[in-house]
Every structure is written in C-alpha cells, then in structure tokens.
Write a structure and sequence with these properties.
Structural class of chain A: alpha+beta
Largest sheet of chain A: 4 strands, mixed
CATH class of the largest domain in chain A: Mainly Alpha
CATH superfamily of the largest domain in chain A: 2-methylcitrate dehydratase PrpD
Oligomer: homodimer
Strand content of chain A: 5-15%
Distance between the termini of chain A: 67 Å
C-alpha cells in the first residue's frame, strides 16, 4: 500500500473549493467597478463575434452533424446559424466556433482563452431558462474569475506538462457561471465545482486540429451539465479541487493556493483580458501593427522598394516562413503579416485565407520584406522602415502592439473586428443592431432578443 | 521558451494511436476463442445486473433529473426504468448505475472497472441504431481491450497520482467500441480515439460520492460522442495518445508502450476480467467466503460460541470496524462480512443495507467474531474456525476467495448475483428471461429485444 502515496501531496491545502463556492453563490450582483463591468461587455462582444464568424466553418458543420445524431430539443441557438439544439449542445457548439479562428480573448498571465468555456455555457443556459442580461454578465465575470484564478495557481507547470489550460480550467469556470445562473446555494455550488473538477479537458498535442476548439466547447458543456447535476442533488467531494487526489494536485505539481484566494471579490481577472486585433500568433502582431501605421501615414504597396524589419530572434524563429503556400502557413509568416498590414491595415481571418495569401501582389510584397534579427528589441515590439521607390524612408517603431494590455483595442476597434467577422454571416445592418445589443446586454430584461439578432434571416 | 519543454518527454513513442485504430477498425468479428467470447457474455451480464440493480438509487434519480432538463429524445433505454433518453445520455446514466454499488467487474492488473464505460456506450448506441448482438459483443471485447491496454501502460503511476483509471482510460474504450459499431475506417477511428484522448475523466478524491460512478458514465458519454464527431469528419491529432503533449505523457509519467502493442489481437484483456460476488472491498471477500462455506457445512448462527478469524494485518487495518452503525460502515467491517457469510451464505448489496446491518441477530453474531492478525496468511486468504456451543470446532481455510481469477464465479453464481440485483426491480420472471437473453446476445439479430426485457412492466 506504500506505493499508493503521492510524493508531492500537499495535505494542508486551504479549502479553495468552499471559498470559491461561497464567492460564486454570494458575491453581490455587479459587485465590481464600472470599468470591470465594461470589460465584461467587451469580453462578451468579442467572444460573440468570433462565434458568429466561424459559424459555417467545417468544424462547426461536423460538430453540429454529430450533435444532430442525438436529435436535440430546440432549446438554444447555434450562433450565426438557424439551427437550435439543447442548451448543453449549444454550449458545446458555440464554444467550438468561438475558438475556431484562434481569434478570441486571451488572459495573458495564463494564456487562457477565458470567454469560450464560460460565455458559451451561460448564454445557452440564459437563453433557454430566460435569464436577464444582468444575470448573464454577473455569471460571466464570476465564472471567468474562477477559471483564471485556478489557472494562475497552476500555471505554468500545468500548461508545460501538456494541458490546454483553456479547457482544463474552463470546466470550472463554466460550472461556476451556470451555478450562479441557477442560483445554487453555497453547498450546491461546491458540488457543481466538484463534479466539474473530475472533467478537465484538453491536450496541447491537439493544436492544429478541430479538437483544439473542441476544448472550450467541451468545457462549456461539461460545466453546464455539472451545474445541472448539482442542482438536482448529485454529490461530489467538497474538497475536489485541493485534496491530495483532487483535481489540481493530480494535474499540476505547482499549486499556488494564494492565487485563488488573494483579493477574491475585489480584484477581477476579467480586468486583465485582452483581445486579438489580428488572426494569428501574438509575436507577429507588432509587425502587422507597424505596417498598418505606415499605411495610415500614406504609404502604399506600389511605392515600396523594400521593407526593413527588425525584430527579436524569437519572432523569426517562430514565424519566419518567407514563402507561405496557404492560409495556415501564413499564420506563421511575419512576412505575410507585414504585407497584409500595409495592404489592408489589419489582418483578420480573411487576410489569412488561401485566396489572399496566394494573390500575386501579396507574394510580391512579401518578397520585399527584409527581416533582420535585433535582440535589443523586445519580443513584443517591432521596428519597421519602408524604403520607397522615390528614395524616401518612413520609419515606425511599435513598442506595444495594439491589443496588448498596454495598448488595448478601443471599443471602436472591437466593433470593427466584430463587423469583419459578423457582416458576412448576418449582414451589416443586423451586425450593427447586434453590436448595440451587446453594449446594452447588462441592462436587458432578458437575453433572448440579443440571441435572436445573432441568428441569420428573419429581418 | 525553454520553459515550455517537458522534462520527461518521450519523443520516440511508437504510433500507438494508429496501431489501436487499425486493430479496432480491422480485427475480424469474433476474432478470438470461444472462451474469450464467453467471458464477454459474462462481463456483459454482470454489468447489466449492476445497472438494473441501482436503477432507482438516488444518484440515478438526480442524474436523470439533470438530463431531463435537456429534454432528450427517447432514443435509448435507462436500464431498469421506463424512461428513454438520447443515446449519449443513456450511456451516461447506465454508466452511473452500473458502478453505483461498486459491485461491477474488475480488471485486477489495473483495477479498472472496464465494462462501465464501454458496455454503457455500446448498448445505448446499438439500441438506437439497430445493431446486432454480434456487433455489440465485438465492440465490447475490442473497446475493453483498448482501455485496459492503455491502463496497463500507465498503471500504477497514473492511478497513484490521483486519477480514477476507470474513467480516464474509459473514454478511449468507449470511443473505440462506438467507432467499431459505426464501422469507421482506420483514419476515422484514429480521430475518434484522438478526440476522446482530450477527455480523461475522474479523480480519486471523489471516492465515496456520486461523482465516483459519474466517472464511468461520463467516460461512456464522452467516448460515444467522440465517435459520432469522428464519423462526421471532426479531426484530432493522429498521435493524440503518445505524443509528448498527448494524453498519456500528460497524465502519466509511466508509459510502457509495449503493454499496448504486445500480442494485440491475440491476447484479450477481457479474459482477465473478474466479478465481485460480494458488495464490498475485496479484502473482506475471503472471510465472507469462508463463513459461507461454514454455513454450507451445516453450521448455523445459533450454534456459535465464537468465530476465530485469522487474517493478514492489512485486512484489519482497512476493514477492522467492529461495530458498524450503518450499511456504508459495514462495507469496512470484516466482522459484518463474517456474520453475513454465515447467516446468508453471501453478501450482496441488500446484506449491506442499514436494515440488515442493524438487525439484533447480526449485531450479536458480529460480536462473536474474534479476529487476530497472522501475517503468514496472504492478504487474499482467510483462516476461520467456528467454535460451537457443543464444543465442536469447524475449520475452513480459503486460499483464493470466490471471484478471484484463481477461483472465478461460475456462470450459475453470476446468475444468482444477477437475480439478487434484478429480481426486485424487474420481477423474477422477467429477470430469468433477461438472463437467457444475455447468454444468447452474441447470436441476437438485434439488441432491442434484450433491452426491452431490462425495462420494467409491459409483460
């Protein structure tokens, strides 16, 4: 029996399951600053745009076809589509689409994409059960706080050993948010967290496949069902997170319990959420931003002799693909990022499509980018000089790219991103209405009107 | 970036995902001995009896109430009840009930309970999609081979660190079995295993709560849905099990790849499945068996002066509760085990009920058991002497208890166990029909007739 002991077991962990359950069940509605509440609306809108934008991706088609094998009841909407499915399946599907473009939000301290699991679960449940927009936003803030705090405690060990931290902590966030929506008491909320704690989802090996976006979707579904089970009296360990053979010690050797409890109810992790302006890996963002600023200064592709790019060595190591052959390869090409920034002023999902990547003018412009390594430049910065055919040199240095915590996307930029994703799916007019509904969701008597706008047709 | 490497990563793992997918998709129907096929029928019947027996447990009621919130389509039966739900939810619910009494099968090498995840998934799918009994048994043998082989590779490290290995390997077994039922090709089967690989379920901290039986149920559900997703073109990593950041290296530091590949298709892990005759921890079984043998020799409780019990120290360490106050405590009382063995000749779920445990004659008989430690006796053995009021001494030594691999339950004993579980739920007549249907399921044109017998009423 001596074998059955964990070498690293911590038998003195604080009762974080109970602490989190108390927070989830009892924290006052809108018990935070206006700034936090506004960030919650930004998080919600950004998540919704990503989900609508990928509504007809082949991953969504495949997942919906599988769900339809279960003949689901039409309880909740698949965003950006006309189909309705049961609320647990809607959580799954919207969680998948919201992460399909890898364009959703990022909690930079843990690289968790927090909205996918939490917002997908709460919107599906709120639509079916008739909750108000205030209840939705409350659940979103609280659910994201739970998943990111657990992430803070386990990061980086947990991520390094192979877990896709978005899915593994997301079940807890979704369970917390749905427990809040269902108005579970402290004890039942602890059970919901406990049931969810047995279902961490996601391995990093799946990156590059449809199973990556399955992770937030699966987490949303698992969390929602965990809350339903708890509401009906299903039991779990009240120490499911922190016990020696509970979730956290089983899946992480690093567990900084204070990260869960410090300033709980005072500091909200959603405050530190960030939004990607560009649909690619974050190290390319400063270069795209710099080239977009050149464009703003009047530089056009036909004027270009060459573009001199100076970046940290890591940027070329990760994204040094000079001649990308398709959209996926272009996501690892800082050269394509520069060409897109100068040509379009941004680089959303469309600018990483095969069609754009193989355009002759894009191929030609990429070849005019001359990249050199300069490790005195931070990984999060880029130094770009456009050398024009008339001999002029135009220089831009980006210290913090747009979308970073130091230089967040403005509300107007988030709206533009949303439009780029949603216009082709819902029409521009409908998209405008939906944006307005997002900004006002915290005051909406119910969320159904907003959801109706996120479904095509029926003008 | 140096941080983002796994210290123990094995970059030379063999392609076990692909190897298993090929086996699952291409192994011939009934491509094994009659003995293996018979063991599959025994495994199926034992699982079915456990599920029927716990059909009305409060865990089943709570889980069904939660599932009903999703308004499931009536595709497949909840065993032992009249309700029907969608096939994924049926997999969940039957997986929960089959493990609720902790009375189901055990693969002793890994202590996996293999049928729960696999049989629950395949029967639900086979009922809805109209598969034959042969397809069901094929899928059961193959699915259990996948989960137990992966378990062999990861055990004991994976279990020791906190995973409930039944649920964590069960998703793979269920996915394999459902992929087989759906006749997926090798590539799609690899995707099904890959999707499942991101969803290991179950922490040991949950033991003693309803979430323990949730683990095989959740694994059954997750595996079934993984196969559905793969059948519709959903993708995953084709190296999802073995890659450095794939499932196995993420959740276990021990991965003996040979355990997966050696004699694959020749040796079948279901051959090593065992069935509990008694509804309690395995260390009490030899003592119960010994007292049941005393009863068979004509010894009755009213003749008893005292019972001298000699066992290994571990037995008293784990199950030394002399005066259990209720059924749950009695499961940790070798004294109650002896009293039940002598009184009833066995100790199923009813003999561990509060009503039986508190009976005055049981209390009195327990107090007549005098236990002493003798570490020369194996943990799996028991030495019992009944000292009678007339002065006679009747001695029984059990080397291997009934239910062990060395002394397996006979078919007749499995039937008696099944009757004890099923008679109160389905009636004795119906139970007899169901037993016959179980023995013949491998030849049944479809499984629906058998399932109909496992639902109460409608004579």
């Amino acid at each position: 029996m001596a074998r059955n002991t964990q070498v690293t077991a911590d038998h003195n962990a604080p009762p974080v399951t109970q602490t989190l359950a108390t927070f989830v069940a009892t924290h006052p509605s809108k018990g935070w600053s206006d700034a936090v509440d506004h960030e919650a609306h930004r998080t919600f809108m950004n998540w919704l745009g990503c989900a609508v934008g990928a509504a007809h991706h082949e991953a969504a088609d495949a997942a919906l076809a599988a769900v339809n094998m279960l003949q689901p009841a039409p309880q909740a909407s698949v965003l950006g589509r006309r189909e309705k499915v049961d609320m647990a399946s809607a959580a799954l599907l919207n969680g998948i689409t919201s992460h399909t473009f890898d364009f959703d939000d990022t909690h930079l301290k843990t690289i968790i994409h927090p909205a996918g699991p939490v917002a997908s679960a709460v919107l599906a449940m709120a639509e079916h059960l008739g909750h108000s927009g205030r209840e939705l936003i409350d659940a979103l803030v609280i659910g994201i706080d739970v998943s990111c705090r657990v992430g803070n405690a386990m990061y980086p060990d947990h991520y390094d050993r192979g877990w896709h931290i978005t899915g593994s902590t997301g079940t807890l966030g979704a369970a917390a948010a749905c427990a809040r929506l269902l108005k579970l008491d402290v004890q039942q909320t602890a059970m919901a967290l406990g049931i969810a704690a047995s279902q961490p989802i996601g391995m990093r090996e799946q990156f590059g496949t449809m199973t990556k976006p399955f992770h937030p979707g699966g987490a949303a579904r698992a969390g929602l069902v965990s809350a339903l089970l708890a509401s009906k009296g299903f039991t779990a360990s009240p120490k499911a997170l922190e016990a020696p053979r509970g979730m956290m010690q089983t899946i992480s050797t690093k567990n900084t319990w204070d990260e869960i409890t410090d300033e709980l109810g005072q500091r909200f992790e959603i405050s530190f959420n960030s939004y990607k302006p560009f649909a690619c890996g974050i190290v390319i963002h400063p270069s795209i931003d710099a080239c977009a600023q050149l464009r703003k200064q009047g530089v056009t592709p036909d004027q270009i002799e060459r573009i001199e790019l100076k970046v940290h060595s890591l940027v070329l190591e990760l994204t040094g693909k000079k001649e990308p052959q398709d959209g996926l390869q272009a996501k690892f090409s800082v050269y394509h990022g520069c060409a897109a920034g100068l040509t379009f002023g941004y680089a959303a999902e469309d600018e990483f499509s095969d069609a754009v990547v193989t355009r002759p003018d894009m191929v030609a412009l990429r070849r005019k980018v001359v990249a050199t390594v300069d490790d005195s430049i931070d990984e999060a910065s880029a130094d770009v000089t456009a050398v024009l055919l008339d001999g002029r040199r135009v220089h831009v240095f980006v210290e913090h790219a747009i979308g970073s915590l130091q230089n967040p996307m403005t509300d107007a930029q988030l709206e533009a991103k949303f439009q780029g994703l949603s216009d082709p799916v819902l029409s521009a007019g409908r998209t405008r209405e939906l944006i307005n509904a997002c900004w006002g969701v915290g005051d909406a008597a119910h969320v159904k009107a907003l959801v109706a706008l996120a479904v095509p047709g029926h003008p």
